[in-house]
Amino acid sequence: MPVRNTGRIVNPRRYGQNFLTDDTMLQRIVNHAALRSGETVLEVGAGTGNLTAAIKQHTNKVIAVEKDHRLVGILRNRFRGDDNVEIIEGDILKIALPAFDKVVASPPYNISSKLIFLLLEKKFSSMTMVLQKEFASRLGAEAGSADYGRLTVAVNHKANVELLDLVPRTAFRPIPEVDSQIVRIVPKARIVPVSEVFLHQMMRYLFSQRRRTLGGVLRRATESTAKEALEEIIEPKDLLERRIFQLTTQEFEHLSNLLYPQRKILTQLNK
Known about the structure:
- Helix content is 32%, strand content 18%.
- By secondary structure, the protein is an alpha/beta fold.
- The termini are far apart.
């Protein structure tokens, strides 16, 4: 049955969001999330509640977070009397969150990166979100591809990413300028232990020269008297001949652990 809000919204652009109104796409998001009756689901950027209405039919509780006070009013009116829908007004990047099992959302595009890293610090089983297609492509990119970069590695260090259905721009009102994609992100049961600060510092420097070889980039990053000594610790040696954008997440994790004890001689990384 249709779950979208049939009420007319005057001048919806003033809310700064594009509302997903396509019933088929709303149901696909819910299906990909594989919701169960006993779960609590976090929804970010609930808007006018179209996705909220779809989620609540399949789970125990929906925690719908919305920043815009005017939209919060619409949500509270729409779900008045629904015991399994909790509306929280606030900025998801700043508020304290109750416990939840899954994330299902169509969040504002401009917080996608910060939101994912914030949520990956929480305990949950999966997040199924509608993201801008270009951003989704970067999350799910293969090593060696044009879209592959620091974002890809940073997220894949902590989670597995699966790109699912494309969502055409016509599924939204008002119609945005870009297409979207449903993405499922599942936290890894075991994260390779690294210095998180050093890993991100290292990747920031390496990806600033993404088409250069690892050996060349490290030589430029190292004190002149320590260049040869640093190269000696890199195993396997063929990593030195690979270009930065060709290295896998696992290889970046491996490099991080090799280089961390030598971080004092990597002078360029400390700038």
